[in-house]
Design brief:
By secondary structure, the protein is an all-alpha fold. 78% of the residues lie in helices and 0% in strands. The protein has 5 helices and no strands. α1 runs antiparallel to α2. It is found in: Membrane.
C-alpha cells in the first residue's frame, strides 16, 4: 500500500490535488468576507472537491471502470470523511494549538493550509480503491 505513494499516478494526483487545493484555499479567503471561518471552510471544500473530481477523472483515474454517477457518489463519500479531517484540523489549529504556541499572525491561513493537506493520503487511497476503481 505504501508503494502506491511512489507511483506516477500519485504524483499526478498530488498535482491535480494541488490545483484543487488552491481553489479551496482561495475560495475560503473569498467566502470569509461574507461568513464565519467554519462555514467558509466547508463551502470552500465543496469548491475544491468539485475541481478535484473533474481533474481526477480527466487526468488521474481515467481508466476507472465506474460510471460517472458511481464515481461521483463514492467521490462524495470519500470527501465526506476528508472534509471532517480538514475541518477538525483547521479549527483545532486555529482556535487551540496555534494560539497556545503564541502564533498570532495568519492563524486562519496556516491552520487551513495544514487542514487541506492532512487528508491527501487517505483521499488518494479512497479514490483509487472506491471512487474510480
Amino acid at each position: 500500500m505504501i508503494s502506491a505513494f511512489g507511483s506516477r499516478q500519485f504524483l499526478i494526483f498530488m498535482l491535480t490535488g494541488g490545483v484543487a487545493a488552491g481553489g479551496n484555499f482561495g475560495s475560503r479567503i473569498l467566502f470569509s468576507q461574507w461568513m464565519g471561518y467554519s462555514a467558509a471552510i466547508v463551502l470552500a471544500y465543496l469548491v475544491g472537491m468539485t475541481m478535484a473530481f473533474i481533474l481526477a477523472r480527466l487526468f488521474v483515474f481515467k481508466d476507472g471502470s465506474r460510471s460517472l454517477h458511481q464515481s461521483a457518489m463514492y467521490f462524495v463519500l470519500v470527501n465526506a470523511v476528508a472534509v471532517v479531517q480538514t475541518w477538525a484540523v483547521s479549527v483545532g489549529l486555529a482556535h487551540f494549538l496555534l494560539p497556545a504556541m503564541g502564533v498570532t499572525r495568519f492563524v486562519h491561513e496556516i491552520a487551513h493550509a495544514v487542514g487541506v493537506v492532512v487528508p491527501v493520503f487517505t483521499s488518494y487511497l479512497g479514490h483509487k480503491h472506491l471512487s474510480f476503481r
